[in-house]
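for the writeup, i need someone to sanity check this before i put it in the appendix. the sequnce is what the collaborator sent (i think, or maybe the updated version? ugh). structure was predicted straight from it, no edits. if anything looks off just tell me and ill rerun, i have time this weekend
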Amino acid sequence: MFSWKKVLAAASQWPFRQLHTSKVLQEAVIINGKQVAKEIQDELKAVITTWMNHSRKRPKLVAILVGNNPASKVYVQRKMKAANSIGIDSYTIHLDESITQQELIKEINHLNADETVDGILVQLPLVKHMNEHEVCQTIAPNKDVDGFHLENLGSLTLNSSGIVPATALAVKELIVRSNIETFGKNAVVVGRSKHVGLPIALLLHADGKDKTAALDMTTTICHRHTPHTELEKHTKLADLVVVAAGIPGLITKDMIKPGACVIDVGITRVKAGDGYKLVGDVDFENVKEVAGHITPVPGGVGPMTVAMLMKNTVSVAMRNYQSVK
């Protein structure tokens, strides 16, 4: 005879827990900044080739390096190598660390007046006796490919046309090319520097219909002095977390909403055994177990920043050509 009691008793022995635990968690998609940067550089190379086929002046970029900071030397070399690879004329002015700020400014003004030069960058950090803010403001706004001049930062704040800092553009481009949904979503930027954290936040937050084609996100800015418990509250609600605080391992697995996109801008050289290695602000190995997308360090935002600097150089060259035509 049919008995519901027997059915229910048998059902109580079914391996329900096994059905749940058998589900395999998928790790995050690794956003390959090197690959995306190469795609962009190939695109720029094609643009320059077309530009030159119309008998126009080849874009020119000049970098100024003050002193002998090993990391700065490497960064400048990478930028010059990228420029040469896509067809931008480029060279570096290497100045002794004993040079005065006034002598540096004189060199910048010479480049400002040189009509053959389209883009100027001064590699930061500068030597201790110089004021980086004052030096950056000396570069002509229309040649400021780093986007650090007040006029360019002001244009970004107003969501108007200008030169956007390369790292902020790199973050935006990685998000867009990875098809991350942003409209109306929550973002947290950890870092408030005027050259990195703030420009990133502005590009995430602003109206996508305006000049900067921003990403329409609801954006919160935190920083290294945000209490950890408060920081965790914000990051757990975020669909996108961008970290640029310069604190290795700041963001851990338990701070990330499952499926969120994590962009690691931080890069720090730390001791590892008998040598050193580069690490980001995110605990990459553990966070990738819960995130939907994540950038590695190195190989994420770094190469993309160089690519977007090249894009800025090509853009200003075309813009400057049109202005004198």
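Residues 135 and 253 are 40 Å apart (CA to CA). Confidence is low (pLDDT under 50) at residues 4-24.
thx in advance!!
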